[in-house]
Every structure is written in C-alpha cells, then in structure tokens.
Design a protein that fits this description.
mainly beta, two-stranded antiparallel ribbon, two-stranded antiparallel sheet
Length: about 100
C-alpha cells in the first residue's frame, strides 16, 4: 500500500478500539497479496441477542450482520453544541425471523 497516513483514532464514532487508524489519500494504491498475512481472528463476534442486552456504552462502532427491515426518516439532534443528522435503521437477526 502506498500514499496513506497513520493518525490517532479518536472521536465519537470510531470503527475500532485500536489506538491508531489508516487514512487513505486520493492517490492511495492498494495491491492484493497472495499470502494470508493478515490475521482473521481479530474480530469479536456476538449474537444478535447479546447485542440487544449489552448495557455498556461503547465508544466505537459495533458491526452488525442482519436483515434490514426498516429505514427511518432523517432526524437532526443537538450533541455537545453541534447538530448531528441521523437515520435509524432497523435490523432483524435470522434468530428473530418468523
């Protein structure tokens, strides 16, 4: 990979709890590698019911696999003095489908 930078990973909506993140630039080049050099065991998998019962407020995004069953209207709300837009998506897990 060429033309990228490494920066501190902070903010409200982080994709991972890792301390750093890669930022791709306009001219970033990524080339496939034949070898399996990136470990595939980094992910923490949870069932849909475990996600629904979580009480801890995570400061990074949680990736979810499910069926998209509803898309809400765009809403705007105030957070820390700034206006933030959001859309609520409803997902259903295979374990909850009739």
């Amino acid at each position: 990979m060429a033309y990228f930078t490494v920066v501190s990973n902070h903010g409200s909506y982080r994709a991972t709890s890792h301390e750093f993140k890669l930022v791709f630039l306009h001219q970033t080049t990524v080339v496939a590698v034949d070898e399996d050099v990136i470990p595939k065991t980094y992910f923490n998998m949870f069932s849909f019911s475990e996600l629904l019962n979580m009480t801890q407020d995570y400061d990074f995004l949680v990736d979810v696999i499910g069926f998209l069953t509803s898309v809400g209207e765009e809403k705007e709300y105030a957070k820390e003095g700034k206006f933030v837009k959001m859309i609520v998506l409803e997902l259903t897990s295979k374990e909850y489908v009739d």
